[in-house]
Specification:
Elements: E1 6-11, E2 14-19, H1 30-44, E3 51-56, E4 60-62, H2 67-75, H3 84-96, E5 102-106, E6 109-111, H4 113-120, E7 123-127, E8 131-133, H5 147-154, H6 157-165, E9 170-171, H7 172-177, E10 183-185, H8 187-202, H9 206-219, H10 224-240, H11 242-252
Parallel strand pairs: 2-3, 3-5, 4-6, 5-7, 6-8, 7-10
Antiparallel strand pairs: 1-2, 8-9
Helix pairs in contact: 1-3, 3-4, 4-5, 9-10
Protein backbone atom coordinates (compact mmCIF):
# COMPACT_ATOMS: atom_id res chain seq x y z
CA UNK A 1 0.00 0.00 0.00
CA UNK A 2 1.16 3.54 -0.70
CA UNK A 3 0.70 4.50 2.97
CA UNK A 4 3.41 1.97 3.83
CA UNK A 5 5.77 4.36 2.04
CA UNK A 6 5.62 6.49 5.19
CA UNK A 7 7.65 4.63 7.82
CA UNK A 8 7.79 5.31 11.53
CA UNK A 9 10.53 4.75 14.07
CA UNK A 10 9.97 5.58 17.73
CA UNK A 11 12.56 5.48 20.49
CA UNK A 12 13.02 7.35 23.76
CA UNK A 13 10.53 10.08 22.95
CA UNK A 14 11.82 10.73 19.42
CA UNK A 15 9.50 9.76 16.57
CA UNK A 16 11.08 9.70 13.12
CA UNK A 17 8.73 9.91 10.14
CA UNK A 18 10.53 8.67 7.03
CA UNK A 19 9.23 9.19 3.50
CA UNK A 20 10.26 5.92 1.87
CA UNK A 21 9.74 6.32 -1.88
CA UNK A 22 13.31 6.54 -3.16
CA UNK A 23 12.38 5.57 -6.73
CA UNK A 24 10.05 8.60 -6.80
CA UNK A 25 12.55 10.80 -4.95
CA UNK A 26 10.12 10.73 -2.03
CA UNK A 27 7.47 12.76 -3.88
CA UNK A 28 4.11 12.99 -2.13
CA UNK A 29 0.79 11.93 -3.59
CA UNK A 30 -2.52 12.68 -1.91
CA UNK A 31 -2.56 9.42 0.04
CA UNK A 32 0.81 10.25 1.59
CA UNK A 33 -0.40 13.70 2.64
CA UNK A 34 -3.45 12.12 4.28
CA UNK A 35 -1.19 9.71 6.16
CA UNK A 36 1.14 12.48 7.31
CA UNK A 37 -1.77 14.62 8.49
CA UNK A 38 -3.28 11.73 10.46
CA UNK A 39 0.07 10.96 12.09
CA UNK A 40 0.60 14.55 13.17
CA UNK A 41 -2.92 14.82 14.56
CA UNK A 42 -2.23 11.74 16.68
CA UNK A 43 1.28 12.72 17.77
CA UNK A 44 0.23 16.24 18.76
CA UNK A 45 -2.12 14.70 21.34
CA UNK A 46 0.48 12.22 22.62
CA UNK A 47 2.87 13.74 25.20
CA UNK A 48 5.17 10.73 24.89
CA UNK A 49 6.17 12.13 21.47
CA UNK A 50 8.69 14.69 22.66
CA UNK A 51 10.51 15.36 19.39
CA UNK A 52 9.43 14.78 15.78
CA UNK A 53 11.97 14.15 13.02
CA UNK A 54 11.03 14.07 9.32
CA UNK A 55 13.47 12.64 6.79
CA UNK A 56 13.65 10.71 3.52
CA UNK A 57 15.16 7.52 2.16
CA UNK A 58 17.90 7.55 -0.47
CA UNK A 59 19.30 10.57 -2.26
CA UNK A 60 16.27 12.84 -1.78
CA UNK A 61 14.52 14.33 1.21
CA UNK A 62 11.38 15.11 -0.80
CA UNK A 63 10.84 16.14 -4.42
CA UNK A 64 7.51 17.80 -3.62
CA UNK A 65 4.27 16.80 -5.30
CA UNK A 66 3.95 13.51 -7.17
CA UNK A 67 4.19 14.77 -10.76
CA UNK A 68 2.59 11.63 -12.22
CA UNK A 69 -0.54 12.11 -10.11
CA UNK A 70 -0.53 15.83 -10.93
CA UNK A 71 -0.23 15.19 -14.68
CA UNK A 72 -3.03 12.61 -14.58
CA UNK A 73 -5.32 15.04 -12.80
CA UNK A 74 -4.60 17.67 -15.45
CA UNK A 75 -5.21 15.15 -18.26
CA UNK A 76 -8.55 14.28 -16.67
CA UNK A 77 -9.56 17.93 -16.41
CA UNK A 78 -9.40 17.72 -12.60
CA UNK A 79 -6.61 20.18 -11.88
CA UNK A 80 -8.91 22.48 -9.90
CA UNK A 81 -10.58 19.71 -7.92
CA UNK A 82 -8.16 16.86 -7.27
CA UNK A 83 -7.25 18.34 -3.90
CA UNK A 84 -3.48 17.99 -3.52
CA UNK A 85 -3.03 21.56 -2.33
CA UNK A 86 -5.82 21.36 0.23
CA UNK A 87 -4.34 18.18 1.70
CA UNK A 88 -0.84 19.69 1.69
CA UNK A 89 -2.10 22.82 3.45
CA UNK A 90 -3.81 20.79 6.17
CA UNK A 91 -0.61 18.84 6.81
CA UNK A 92 1.79 21.79 6.82
CA UNK A 93 -0.40 23.79 9.21
CA UNK A 94 -0.28 20.90 11.68
CA UNK A 95 3.47 20.62 11.25
CA UNK A 96 4.09 24.33 11.83
CA UNK A 97 1.87 24.30 14.92
CA UNK A 98 3.21 21.02 16.36
CA UNK A 99 3.46 21.57 20.13
CA UNK A 100 6.90 20.02 20.59
CA UNK A 101 10.24 20.39 18.74
CA UNK A 102 10.40 19.35 15.09
CA UNK A 103 13.49 18.59 13.02
CA UNK A 104 13.74 18.25 9.25
CA UNK A 105 16.68 15.96 8.50
CA UNK A 106 17.45 16.99 4.92
CA UNK A 107 19.29 13.92 3.73
CA UNK A 108 19.42 14.88 0.05
CA UNK A 109 17.68 16.79 -2.75
CA UNK A 110 14.87 18.97 -1.38
CA UNK A 111 12.50 20.55 -3.91
CA UNK A 112 9.19 22.42 -3.93
CA UNK A 113 6.88 21.19 -1.21
CA UNK A 114 9.88 19.36 0.23
CA UNK A 115 11.47 22.72 1.04
CA UNK A 116 8.20 23.89 2.59
CA UNK A 117 8.11 20.85 4.89
CA UNK A 118 11.61 21.75 5.99
CA UNK A 119 10.73 25.42 6.47
CA UNK A 120 7.75 24.46 8.65
CA UNK A 121 10.02 22.64 11.11
CA UNK A 122 11.83 24.26 14.02
CA UNK A 123 15.21 23.05 12.78
CA UNK A 124 16.60 22.02 9.39
CA UNK A 125 19.74 19.90 9.57
CA UNK A 126 21.19 19.27 6.12
CA UNK A 127 23.68 16.65 5.03
CA UNK A 128 26.65 18.05 3.15
CA UNK A 129 25.35 16.50 -0.09
CA UNK A 130 21.84 17.93 0.30
CA UNK A 131 20.49 20.70 -1.91
CA UNK A 132 17.45 22.98 -1.96
CA UNK A 133 15.48 24.28 -4.94
CA UNK A 134 12.18 26.16 -5.04
CA UNK A 135 10.80 24.00 -7.85
CA UNK A 136 7.46 25.77 -8.15
CA UNK A 137 8.55 28.47 -10.59
CA UNK A 138 10.36 25.89 -12.69
CA UNK A 139 6.92 24.38 -13.31
CA UNK A 140 5.35 27.78 -13.96
CA UNK A 141 3.71 27.90 -10.52
CA UNK A 142 4.03 30.09 -7.46
CA UNK A 143 4.78 28.58 -4.01
CA UNK A 144 1.86 26.57 -2.67
CA UNK A 145 2.63 24.91 0.67
CA UNK A 146 3.38 27.91 2.84
CA UNK A 147 6.73 28.68 1.25
CA UNK A 148 5.94 32.35 0.71
CA UNK A 149 4.99 32.67 4.41
CA UNK A 150 7.95 30.72 5.81
CA UNK A 151 10.57 32.28 3.53
CA UNK A 152 9.51 35.78 4.51
CA UNK A 153 10.36 34.84 8.10
CA UNK A 154 13.57 32.95 7.43
CA UNK A 155 15.46 35.06 4.88
CA UNK A 156 15.99 38.62 3.69
CA UNK A 157 13.39 39.64 1.11
CA UNK A 158 15.89 39.71 -1.76
CA UNK A 159 17.27 36.28 -0.79
CA UNK A 160 13.77 34.80 -0.65
CA UNK A 161 12.89 36.28 -4.04
CA UNK A 162 16.07 34.99 -5.65
CA UNK A 163 15.44 31.49 -4.31
CA UNK A 164 11.93 31.52 -5.79
CA UNK A 165 12.38 33.56 -8.97
CA UNK A 166 15.55 31.97 -10.33
CA UNK A 167 14.74 28.42 -9.21
CA UNK A 168 18.44 27.83 -8.57
CA UNK A 169 19.62 24.66 -6.92
CA UNK A 170 21.42 25.76 -3.76
CA UNK A 171 23.95 23.53 -2.10
CA UNK A 172 23.61 22.85 1.62
CA UNK A 173 26.33 25.41 2.33
CA UNK A 174 24.62 28.04 0.16
CA UNK A 175 21.34 27.39 1.93
CA UNK A 176 23.11 27.72 5.29
CA UNK A 177 24.59 31.07 4.28
CA UNK A 178 21.13 32.25 3.20
CA UNK A 179 19.58 31.20 6.52
CA UNK A 180 17.42 28.46 5.03
CA UNK A 181 18.99 25.62 7.01
CA UNK A 182 20.20 25.50 10.60
CA UNK A 183 23.41 23.56 10.12
CA UNK A 184 25.26 21.31 7.67
CA UNK A 185 26.77 17.98 8.71
CA UNK A 186 29.12 15.67 6.82
CA UNK A 187 27.26 12.79 5.21
CA UNK A 188 29.02 10.09 7.21
CA UNK A 189 28.10 11.77 10.51
CA UNK A 190 24.64 13.00 9.49
CA UNK A 191 22.31 10.34 10.92
CA UNK A 192 24.17 10.06 14.21
CA UNK A 193 24.21 13.85 14.59
CA UNK A 194 20.46 14.13 13.95
CA UNK A 195 19.79 11.33 16.45
CA UNK A 196 21.87 13.04 19.17
CA UNK A 197 20.27 16.42 18.55
CA UNK A 198 16.74 14.97 18.61
CA UNK A 199 17.52 13.07 21.80
CA UNK A 200 18.64 16.32 23.44
CA UNK A 201 15.37 17.98 22.50
CA UNK A 202 13.33 14.99 23.66
CA UNK A 203 15.02 15.10 27.06
CA UNK A 204 14.07 18.73 27.56
CA UNK A 205 11.06 20.41 29.22
CA UNK A 206 8.37 19.66 26.64
CA UNK A 207 5.73 21.84 28.25
CA UNK A 208 8.04 24.85 28.21
CA UNK A 209 9.01 24.09 24.61
CA UNK A 210 5.35 24.03 23.59
CA UNK A 211 4.61 27.37 25.23
CA UNK A 212 7.76 28.87 23.73
CA UNK A 213 6.77 27.77 20.24
CA UNK A 214 3.34 29.33 20.72
CA UNK A 215 4.93 32.57 21.96
CA UNK A 216 7.23 32.75 18.95
CA UNK A 217 4.30 32.11 16.61
CA UNK A 218 2.24 34.99 17.96
CA UNK A 219 5.11 37.43 18.49
CA UNK A 220 5.13 38.96 14.98
CA UNK A 221 1.49 39.99 15.33
CA UNK A 222 1.55 41.17 18.95
CA UNK A 223 2.41 44.42 20.66
CA UNK A 224 5.05 44.22 23.38
CA UNK A 225 2.35 44.58 26.04
CA UNK A 226 0.33 41.74 24.51
CA UNK A 227 3.43 39.56 24.26
CA UNK A 228 4.37 40.21 27.88
CA UNK A 229 0.88 39.20 28.99
CA UNK A 230 1.14 36.01 26.94
CA UNK A 231 4.56 35.31 28.47
CA UNK A 232 3.08 35.75 31.94
CA UNK A 233 0.32 33.25 31.25
CA UNK A 234 2.75 30.79 29.69
CA UNK A 235 5.16 31.14 32.60
CA UNK A 236 2.44 30.35 35.11
CA UNK A 237 1.46 27.24 33.13
CA UNK A 238 5.10 26.13 32.99
CA UNK A 239 5.50 26.71 36.72
CA UNK A 240 2.58 24.41 37.45
CA UNK A 241 3.86 21.67 35.16
CA UNK A 242 5.69 18.61 36.46
CA UNK A 243 8.78 19.73 34.56
CA UNK A 244 8.69 23.17 36.15
CA UNK A 245 8.34 21.74 39.63
CA UNK A 246 11.12 19.21 38.98
CA UNK A 247 13.45 21.96 37.76
CA UNK A 248 12.85 23.97 40.93
CA UNK A 249 13.55 20.94 43.13
CA UNK A 250 16.68 20.14 41.13
CA UNK A 251 17.96 23.70 41.50
CA UNK A 252 17.50 23.60 45.29
CA UNK A 253 19.17 20.19 45.44
CA UNK A 254 22.01 21.28 43.14
CA UNK A 255 21.47 18.54 40.56
CA UNK A 256 20.46 18.32 36.91
CA UNK A 257 16.69 18.14 36.38
CA UNK A 258 15.13 14.98 34.97
CA UNK A 259 12.27 16.23 32.81
CA UNK A 260 9.25 13.99 32.24
CA UNK A 261 7.74 16.04 29.43
CA UNK A 262 4.64 16.87 31.44
Amino acid sequence: MMTEEIRIDSRNGVVTVRIDRPAARNALARVHLDRLRALLESYAQDPSVRCLVITGTGKAFCAGADVEEWAQAEANGELDTYGWSEKAHAFVQLLAAFPRPTVAALNGSTVGAGTDIGFACDFRIASASASLRCGYTGMGYSPDMGGSWFLARLARPDVARRFVFLNERWSAEQALAAGLVSEVVDDDAFEAHVARFAAQLAAGPSVAFGHTKALFARSLNSTLAEQLQAELSAGLACGHSEDGQEALRASKERRAPQFAGR
